[in-house]
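yo, Precorrin-4 C(11)-methyltransferase is done. seq:
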Amino acid sequence: MTVYFIGAGPGAADLITVRGARTLASCGVCLYAGSLVPRELLAQCPPDARLVDTAQLDIEQITAELLAAHRAGQDVARLHSGDPSVFSAVNEQMRRLDEAGIPYEVIPGVPAFAAAAAALKRELTVPTVGQTVILTRIAQRATAMPEGEDLATLGRSGALIVLHLAAQYVDRVVAELVPHYGTDCPAAVVAYASRPDEIVLRGTLEDIAAQVKEAGVLRTAVIMVGRTLGAAQFHDSHLYSPSRDRHVC
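structure:
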């Protein structure tokens, strides 16, 4: 048997990849986070599949489910929201599978920040304006941030910052970034990206916190701060430039 860590995408059921959907439809067991993964995706599981909501399970209980499936010779679809490569807590599951000698594979998904950028209709990297995107979060009740990765330090780069798990601390985010970006810096918050109840807020560091509070956004959101969000005057990319020599590899 194999455990498949599948990126379910940011929310819309049809944003799972073709590979992810095919794998989901072939697995006898599906572990999913009920609070984050759309229920419509579960309809793609085999009719007799064992469905396990992991929202209230700890890592040892989740591991026990994976071990039980292994003993029964059943493939497992381990559905994670967004993409498994960031803020997904798959590392500790993989570590336990390695210890148990259970094979696994990872199937990528559409990350929340990409869905948020699509909702904003913005490219996050803009020629001569900004070519760096920082994906991060802030330390609160969750695991502490490593030294040097606090928001004030990262903000010194001036790069576009994408914050996960921080909407309820938007005042703190603004306070730590204003010294580096200025109150006029474009900012946006997208909650429930790609879902029918998607919320899109656009503004600056001066007013985005007030918008977040007025909209009642507390979680399942990403905050974006950076000049590329408002870029209008910039050079065209060299990729499609008429001056580019297209005979040179």
